[in-house]
Amino acid sequence: MRNPALLPAMVCALLATAPALADDPSTGVWQKHEYSFAFMGFTTTYSCDGLADKLKVLLLAAGARPDVKAYGSACAAGFGRPDKLARADLTFYTLAPPTGVAGDGAPVNAQWLPVELQARKPRELGPGDCELVDQFRTSVLPMFTTRNTDNHTTCVPHQESGSLINLKFEALAGVPAPKVAKTSAH
Fold it and tell me: Is the peptide bond before 122 cis (omega within 30 degrees of 0)?
């Protein structure tokens, strides 16, 4: 090296960019999560299978691997009936940066997926799902690798009017496989 005085400046510059590189991974490893979700809201009640369906929508919207499993669990009211304390058992995979994380399988291509949860976005969410989205944010979303979370969700107990679902974040998600054009044989 011609100018040894530049070495400390170069090392500092390299260290300053290290978090930025780690914050923008191009690969990730799948991590398995098993979680029992218990929901008790004031505004909306769900059957256990209805809760499982809503949670599957939220998991997929947040970037979980498509093989999400969500099952209604231990509901006192029985199948298809609203329950004050609905439960669902979840099994899902999320992407994590490959550094220092035990994962399931080889690293896969990853990208930051912008996610917006609002009433009708995804279309299965309505204003009555406000408390569910808020509980999902606090108990399930930390299992995802996220950044730039912007939460303006406001839930008014016992009424839909005045409640607002407005949760935005970026989640580390798998890059979809490229679509292969079908060729027709003549």
Answer: yes
What whole-number distance in Å separates Cα of residue 175 and Cα of residue 99?
Answer: 18
pTM over 0.85: no
The pLDDT score that the predictor gives to residue 142 is: 97
Query: Which of 163, 44, 62 shows the shortest CA–CA distance to 117?
Result: 62
Contact between residue 113 and residue 170 where contact means Cβ atoms under 8 Å apart: yes
Q: Length of the chain in residues, anyone?
A: 186
Instruction: Give the HSE-up count for residue 79: Cα atoms under 13 Å, Cβ half-sphere.
Output: 1
Residue 31, H or E segment: strand 27-39
pLDDT digit string, tens, across residues 67-95: 999 998 877 656 666 677 889 999 999 99
Task: Show me where the domains of the chain are located.
Answer: 27-174
Of the candidates 95, 88, 105, which has an alpha carbon nearest to the alpha carbon of residue 145? 95
